[in-house]
Design goal:
Structural class of chain C: alpha+beta
CATH topology of the domain at 2-18 and 503-626 in chain B: Methane Monooxygenase Hydroxylase, Chain G, domain 1
CATH architecture of the largest domain in chain C: Orthogonal Bundle
Largest interface: B-C, 82 and 80 residues
CATH topology of the largest domain in chain C: Fumarate Reductase Iron-sulfur Protein, Chain B, domain 2
Low-confidence stretches of chain B: 1-10
Radius of gyration of chain C: 20 Å
Oligomer: heterotrimer
CATH class of the domain at 2-18 and 503-626 in chain B: Mainly Alpha
Number of domains of chain C: 2
Low-confidence stretches of chain C: none
Mean pLDDT of chain B: 94
Chains: A mainly alpha, B alpha+beta, C alpha+beta
Shape of chain C: elongated
Order of helices and strands of chain C: EEHEEEEEHHHHHHH
Mean pLDDT of chain C: 97
Structural class of chain B: alpha+beta
Distance between the termini of chain C: 63 Å
CATH architecture of the domain at 2-18 and 503-626 in chain B: Up-down Bundle
Strand content of chain B: 5-15%
Radius of gyration of chain B: 24 Å
CATH class of the largest domain in chain C: Mainly Alpha
Chain lengths: 207, 658, 246
């Protein structure tokens, strides 16, 4: 889970950088979107790089979800009877990992249908992601849904970063505090970057 | 000492015939020659079992604390087939785990003049000249190897900043020879032994039976050949046979109900062996620790020890006036009695355990005790906090203060601690020879369960040393001599049946009395009697009263006991009943032993025998012997066998701490 | 104080078990939680009922025998405290307290609040030791150990094997227990020769016992009466990765 999680984080960082291009205006943003397909061209065929990336991501998703399901099933087998009297204190982020993950999956499906396959988008114009984005966040329901999902993803990342570094044996007593601060800072900045887009549309900077 | 004459024949048997005097006793295995050569000589002369035969020899070990755990592991490593039993759910929980202070060893890492000779001397003197020189010398020799062994196992002893082993000094000695692992030395040593034991379990040389309680020894052909145990989960009564049996079942401090022992500590294994013929030596020697958290009410089940190190900086006092129940911080300086500093100006608050304990009892008897029931004295750190600052005090004693606060709900930084003595360790136990073999051939006894090394008083940090010495180094060598002669004649099935039947009948008796009192309620009452009359201070009158009260309470026990449930299940009330029944018999023997020993020594203080200053007054002329008791039946007079103690190397003197 | 105690009653491993409710009066604030249970049991014996079976021994927080989940929290609400050192002054008159056994498939209930923790012993058997047969030890002073390493090893070695970590973990994982031993021995020079085979064997055994996987929630550390640091898990994970390397 740790390794695939880190792949997602790297992807999300790149994704966030790309998103922020929306503030450079329609032309820059759409050119960037087109470049994703022509990456490495003409040396490598059209869309090859993107396709490889997509395959890697899909594989990671399968592995990540597979491991998560296995862990959850193991946990259920390991504790067939729960406590009736209550539960010990546990951080919100770690407690909501599994529930949050379901929302994240639903969100990703919606997000792909919305802006990749454009079937769920109010406009759904091929080759004009800028307009599609603006169309999305002009609808308050879509905006709220995006914001909520991004916060859940942020919580997932907050625990995920700490957990991945602990799993990979990168943590010790001296580093524990810094790792946790880093995990919080990283998830806050990353999610802020993602939230900037809907926020830009709502306040009218992106239109 | 083998040929020494008994000096105590002059003492008349008690007029009320509480006991009779039998033949003097000798340690047939006692080695001779220069003391520093005796252990080497014994090992050389002892027979050795050849490695191929070790696989064919079996040993039962009862109890897996420091002594039993280390013995099981070591015997397993040697190749014997070991079957071990403990009543806990894991060997890691034996009460050795609770020892705080440390373990002594004559390493002389401090270059402060320590040596095997000095540790030997300190231990004999600390034991108030009631232990065997040969045994104590061996203990001191082996102490050095124990530290090596434990370090090799990965025990995280305290280290100084150069990475070398740290030591500290401990009560009663002038050198720094106590190795420690913060306040949890017992835990760390036990875990070392436990891990070695688990390694042997994995290797198949030791078969471990947890949650099993030994209820009878099987003696056949005059030899110990096995045990009857109860599986505490299913209630099944099992028999296990072997070439030798080792008891490592700990001490019997719980006869007082309230003690620093674990709740499960009991005398059953050793008492059952005693009933089968093993002599019980010096049962009255009881160590009372001066710094425990006082009893807070009738509901109390257990006493908690606070490290003795607290007396280095705390000042002990009580109000001068009787029944002064003002809050301690409002009592002005001139209305306080710092009684230890007053009576013992040179040692002050640092007098030995027994003296500090008795002094606390005396001021409380005068009606000047503090806290609930007036059984407590103050241990005040306000001077230390003023002198050293709160931070320094916290650095030194922080965890102890926290523990005190957790238990009492009072903050010792602002309010003086209340402390009171509590039963802590029992020096008496089954009589063993130099080979640690009891008077039943094939029955070996190690650790606190035997009587061997501490005499009338144990020095701090010596219990861990003795447990591990016996388990790692002494028993595994001496038991070879016995096993080399094996196999012994087969066990007579009649003897096995008899033992099993006795166990089953006893259990069904417990279940069938169907009275109205729980085992715990009897235990509490027995504890009261023992603490009152056979505790810190004993008198002829009190002990006689105790014996008669114990007898009538014991009769009541067998009439009014209530045990719920059945035998074929986990039944903690039934377990308890069996233990309390044995405590009743032991309690009587303790009082008889205390009554017959007309002197004060170490952990035995007879009010009639004290100096003008109230110090213990030994009678070396008449009592320099081990009192080993033979069982003749419940309520019938036990027979006293005296093993005379000769001191060739250490000269007897009277202690003085003024 | 007057309280209502809801206790898990289960006759044996096969029994289904249920929560039973007992009112109890006369609780003093100076009683420990186990003394309160003693009192309840005395009352039950008086009425001829079967007392509640529970594990306990040293009653000074070091043997690791006591094991009760109090209102769903192993060893109850106080930090760094075992059940035996939890005092009734932390509860209020009229409270209802739910007392349950450790809940984990690897710790089957034996009776009432008593569970079988032998899985922990088997994890130690699989490699939680240094192979140092008696008599073979070199002179203790010959290997200096940096103060900090010894002290960190000690922090890990203070584990009392009570199983609260497993009982609290939402996955019923035994990582903290296993990691504490791996860290203790892994930090000592004496533990080096077997370091990597130890971690592999112990983790395999831990999995075979049916404990859950670790998701780094940190709850184990929160409830641990000895405060075993979470870093032990990080250190063990580091050792696992190193052991996996060819």
């Amino acid at each position: 889970m740790a390794v695939t999680g880190i792949v997602f984080l790297l992807f999300l960082v790149a994704h966030a950088f790309g998103n922020l291009k929306v503030f450079y205006g329609r032309a820059d943003y759409n050119t960037y979107a087109a470049w994703l397909r022509t990456m490495g061209s003409p040396a490598i065929p059209h869309r090859l790089a993107l396709t490889i990336l997509e395959i890697v991501l899909v594989l990671c998703v399968l592995l990540h979800i597979g491991s998560a399901v296995e862990l959850a099933l193991r946990a259920r087998r390991a504790r067939p009877i729960g406590y009736a009297g209550g539960r010990p204190k546990q951080s919100y982020a770690s407690r909501t990992m599994r529930v949050g993950a379901i929302l994240v999956v639903l969100f990703v499906i919606y997000h792909l249908l919305d802006l990749t396959f454009r079937v769920a988008n109010p406009k759904g114009i091929a080759g004009d992601p800028y307009d599609n984005v603006v169309a999305d966040f002009s609808n308050p329901f879509v905006t709220i849904f995006y914001v909520v999902c991004l916060i859940v993803i942020g919580l997932h990342i907050r625990h995920g970063v700490w957990s991945a570094l602990q799993t990979l044996g990168r943590s010790n007593a001296r580093r524990e505090r810094s790792i946790n601060i880093f995990a919080i800072a990283f998830s806050v900045v990353l999610i802020a970057a993602f939230l900037a887009v809907p926020f830009g549309v709502v306040i009218g900077v992106v239109h | 000492m083998a040929d020494s004459k008994s000096t105590a024949d002059t003492v008349e048997p008690d007029e009320n015939l509480l006991f009779t005097v039998g033949d003097p006793l000798q340690d047939a295995k006692a080695p001779e020659g220069p003391i520093e050569k005796r252990w080497e000589e014994r090992r050389f002369k002892g027979k050795i079992v050849n490695p191929a035969n070790k696989r064919k020899r079996s040993v039962i070990v009862v109890g897996t604390g420091l002594a039993g755990g280390s013995a099981s592991a070591t015997l397993g490593e040697a190749g014997y087939q070991v079957t071990a039993f403990c009543y806990q759910d894991s060997p890691r929980r034996a009460h050795s785990v609770a020892a705080q202070g440390g373990i002594n060893a004559a390493k002389n890492y401090r270059n402060d003049g320590d040596s095997v000779q000095r540790l030997f001397y300190d231990t004999v003197k600390g034991g108030d000249y009631r232990s065997r020189e040969s045994n104590v010398h061996r203990l001191a020799e082996v102490s050095v190897q124990i530290i090596d062994q434990c370090v090799a196992q990965g025990v995280p002893f305290a280290r100084d900043y150069g990475g070398l082993l740290d030591t500290r000094s401990f009560g009663g000695v002038q050198v720094s020879r106590t190795f420690y692992a913060r306040g949890q030395t017992g835990q760390q040593l036990l875990i070392g032994a436990y891990q070695a034991l688990e390694r042997q379990i994995a290797a198949g040389t030791v078969k471990m039976n947890t949650r099993h309680e030994m209820l009878e020894v099987i003696v056949s052909g005059g030899r110990a050949r096995g045990v009857v145990v109860r599986d505490m989960i299913t209630g099944e009564i099992e028999t296990h046979l072997a070439d030798a049996v080792v008891l490592a079942s700990g001490g019997y401090g719980n006869v007082y109900f309230l003690s620093t022992n674990a709740m499960g500590c009991n005398v059953t294994a050793t008492w059952r062996a005693h009933r089968k013929g093993a002599l019980f030596a010096n049962p009255c020697y009881t160590q009372i620790h001066p710094t425990c958290i006082p009893v807070s009410g009738d509901h109390q089940s257990k006493l908690t020890l606070m490290s003795e190190s607290l007396r280095n900086d705390g000042r002990v006092w009580v109000p001068k006036a009787k029944g002064d129940d003002r809050s301690p911080e409002t009592i002005p300086e001139d209305e306080r009695d710092y009684y230890l500093e007053r009576i013992y100006p040179s040692f002050g608050n640092l007098v030995p355990r027994d003296i500090a304990s008795r002094a606390a009892k005396n001021v409380c008897d005068e009606g000047r005790g503090v806290g609930p029931g007036g059984r407590g004295v103050y241990l005040d750190f306000s001077d230390a906090i003023q002198r050293l600052g709160r931070d320094a005090v916290e650095a030194k004693y922080g965890n102890l203060f926290e523990m005190y606060d957790r238990i009492t709900g009072e903050d010792p930084y602002t309010k003086p601690m209340r402390i009171y003595p509590a039963v802590h360790y029992t020096m008496g136990g089954l009589w063993v020879d130099y080979d640690l073999q009891s008077s039943i051939p094939g029955l070996f006894v190690i650790g606190e369960a035997n009587f061997s090394d501490h005499g009338a008083n144990r020095l701090g940090a010596s219990a861990l040393m003795q447990g591990l010495a016996d388990g790692y180094f002494v028993l595994p060598n001496t038991i070879g001599s016995y096993l080399a002669e094996a196999p012994y004649e087969g066990t007579d099935p009649k003897d096995v049946d008899e033992a099993v039947t006795a166990v089953k009948e006893r259990i069904s008796t417990f279940l069938s009395i169907n009275g109205d009192r729980s085992p715990d309620s009897f235990h509490r009452e027995l504890g009261h009697i023992m603490w009152e009359y056979c505790g810190m201070e004993r008198t002829d009158e009190g002990l006689r009263k105790a014996i008669s009260e114990i007898r009538s309470l014991r009769d009541e026990f067998w009439k009014r006991l209530k045990v719920t449930g059945a035998s074929e299940e986990l039944n903690q009330t039934l377990e308890k009943a069996g233990r309390v029944a044995d405590f009743f018999e032991l309690a009587e023997l303790m009082c008889i032993d205390a009554l017959h020993r007309e002197e004060s020594c170490g952990g035995h203080f007879r009010a009639e025998h004290q100096t003008e200053d109230g110090e213990a007054l030994r009678d070396d002329e008449n009592f320099a012997y081990v009192g080993a008791w033979e069982f003749t039946g419940t309520g019938t007079q036990p027979v006293l066998h005296k093993e005379a103690l000769d001191y060739e190397y250490v000269h007897m003197t009277q202690r003085s701490y003024k | 104080m007057k309280l209502t105690i809801r206790v898990w009653r289960q006759k044996n491993e096969a029994d289904k078990g249920r929560l039973a409710e007992y009112p109890i009066d006369g609780i003093e604030p100076d009683m420990s939680f186990l003394e309160m249970m003693d009192l309840l049991n005395e009352e039950l014996i008086g009425k001829g009922e079967d007392p509640v079976a529970f594990d306990h021994d040293c009653r000074e927080g070091i043997c690791g025998m006591c094991s009760m989940a109090i209102d769903g929290v192993p060893h109850g609400p106080e930090k760094a405290t075992t059940t035996c050192q939890l005092y009734m002054r932390h509860f209020k008159d009229g409270d209802t307290i739910t007392v349950e056994p450790w809940r984990a498939a690897a710790f089957p209930v034996v009776k009432d609040l008593v569970v079988d923790r032998s899985a922990f012993d088997r994890i130690i058997q699989s490699g939680g030791y240094v192979s140092a047969p008696t008599g073979s030890a070199p002179e203790a002073g010959s290997t200096p150990i940096p103060h900090e390493d010894a002290s960190k090893a000690f922090d890990a070695a203070t584990c009392i094997g009570c199983g609260a970590c497993v009982a609290a973990c939402p996955n019923a994982s035994a990582m903290l227990f296993t990691a504490a031993k791996v860290t203790h021995l892994g930090l000592m020079p004496q533990g080096q020769p077997e370091r990597y085979q130890r971690v592999t064997a112990m983790v395999e055994q831990m999995d075979a016992e049916g404990f859950g996987g670790c998701t780094n929630t940190g709850v184990c550390h929160t409830v641990c009466p000895k405060g075993i640091p979470l870093e032990t898990i990080g250190r063990m994970n580091g050792d696992i990765l190193k052991a996996l390397r060819p």
